Amino acid sequence: MPRRVAVTGLGLIGPHGGAEPGGAQAAFEALMAGQSAVTLWDHPAAAQLNAPAAVAPTPFDASHWFTRLQLAGVDRFSQFAVAAAELARADAGLAAYDAATGVYLGSGMGGAAAIEDAYASAQKSGRVSPLTVPATMPNAGAAHIAMRNGLHGPVYTYSIACASSAVAIAEAAKAIAAGELDCAIAGGSEALLLPGVIRAWQAMHTLAEPAAQAERSSRPFAVDRAGLVLGEGAAVLVLEPLEAARARGARLYAEIAGSGVSCDATHLTKPDTAGQVRALTMALARAGLAPAEVGYCNAHGTATQAGDMVEAASLAQVWGEALPQLAVSSTKSMHGHLLGAAGALEAAITVLALYNRALPPSMFCEMPDPECALALVHTPGTQAPELKAAISNSFAFGGTNVVLAFRRAE
What we know:
With 410 residues, the protein is α/β, with parallel strands linked by helices. It has twelve helices and 16 strands. It has helices at 23-32, 76-91, 112-125, 132-136, 140-149, 164-177, 195-203, 242-247, 273-287, 305-319, 332-335, 342-356, and strands at residues 5-13, 39-40, 54-56, 102-106, 155-158, 184-190, 230-231, 233-241, 254-263, 296-298, 327-329, 358-359, 375-376, 382-383, 389-395, 400-407. The longest helix has 16 residues, at 76-91.
């Protein structure tokens, strides 16, 4: 029989902070209060953009985690990953990670800052840093976690656009369930608030132009939604066999009940209802959950016109008559879209929703789109005393769909 898998530790480095003991819970409480971390981008290159950009930056002091010598050749996304893994270890009550622990990390673009610096340096002087390649490679974050902790288990990196870290968590949970590992570090990291990256997203016409109040720029499922807001950060979950976690007296945040992964195989950037329905149906089946048993969905909800409508249609098709009982929110309205790290951050938020039996809101949707007929959570501080199961959706460019299903650990 497959082993049951528990989430015993959470580490967040995100737009709402988290870089302190208990920081994941503090970040969740900020989300519960409806606090937006979105602001105007204040980078020196901001004036050169065709239009101002709204972003969700992450406060982070690298010197807390690295010496100046250690920082050489370590991109910001890797710094985030190392810090989140350390926070998760402490939160799980582990003095150290066992050497056989596995690392499953997701990142959409890896060391984007290092590669932008290399291009700029090459144009200016014809030279680039010899550390450019190890800083930019997408597996650098996972490798740094392994080296910092002396880990000799499997160390994997998944690069699947917005589904990267959700896939990482799904694969880590499968390894624990199959008895291949007794502990896994699973999550993702991304750091893309850079001139070239923001210009590229603007060129696709998917970024929201800042609202009159910048913090309200991301409005998933609203009639006046205008596109996504980029964020940055990392989230890491510590996964262990449920019975082993109980035996050592670990805090049980939630149980990973199942996952579903599918590919649309239709278009690189346009989502497809049939593909999302396959992933949703698979996740519920593997978790042994009926739609009516799931009380909360942390939606992918990017605030794009097509994306929100397709996701709403997919949920409606799977939930049917039970759809009004499914509370839905897109916390991207407050922390922005972390791309390769989005699935991990939103999985952590979903786990905390179950643990606290509380529902973070979908903010700034004052006029819900009738084409997205969902039971959106509008009110900060909403409690859910009967919440027993929840899902987190991640739907990526390239057509990969990932749904993570969680059950409350009683």
